[in-house]
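Suppose you are handed a protein chain with no further information: no name, no annotation, nothing but its sequence. What can you learn? This example shows the usual starting point.
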Amino acid sequence: MAIIEHTGYYENPINGVSHMHTSCELIYLVSGRLEVINGDEPFCLSDGDSLLIKSRKHHTIRMKSGIDYKRFVAFINPWELEKQLVRPDLFAMLTDISRSGYIILRNAPQLYGGFEKMKDIFENGGNIYAELSAALNVISAFYEEVRPQAKNAANSAKRLSDTVRFYIESNYADNIKISSLAKENFISEGYLAHAFKSETGMSPREYLSHIRCTRAYELICHTNMKFADISCNTGFCCANDMSKKIREYYGRTPTQIRFENNR
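A reasonable first move is to predict its three-dimensional structure. Written in structure tokens, the prediction is:
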């Protein structure tokens, strides 16, 4: 399944009925006035505003008449996003409607490029990593708007965890040493493990293994690359090491996975 399930640029009017989506809907209003009705009080979007509608949240969208209207719309699959990242914080933001099913960013022109990138990937194709990067570029802005601001220590742990997580996601194919990451951040390896696990539910080593396994799995399923090349491109020391980890993670060998996917 894809992370970006649909995205496009539209200039046609909207006068809808109340509905909901399993995926999350993201809107960037290039120009015009948009009214969103959530069953309680309506709210409006103006030029440059962006809206995230969470999974399974009923809503009605109406366009203000007589105004030039342009918008980007994207639908993101939060379950596929969670599978690729193991981020319970982001997943909760996209699916938890116990408080509010909406997040609004006012005057956020910096998101325009992110929506353009998602549209290009959806229309012209892109692998799961490109989708992940493009979706996170937009979703992270909403997350920063609503994430709880706790005590300084908690904020420090969050920043540390985000830094290490981003480094792992960007450099998983390299020979990453957790001890070196701790040293570079002037902390002990034990504190790094504790802070990272408190934010992600996994240790840095577990997260690195997860990222390598999921990236290798995608290449096994969707390319004809040799297993030795896949192992080299995803940070495993050799094809046998990759095969062992993949079997532990998915319960099947790379050969079995590729055969099942190609049937």
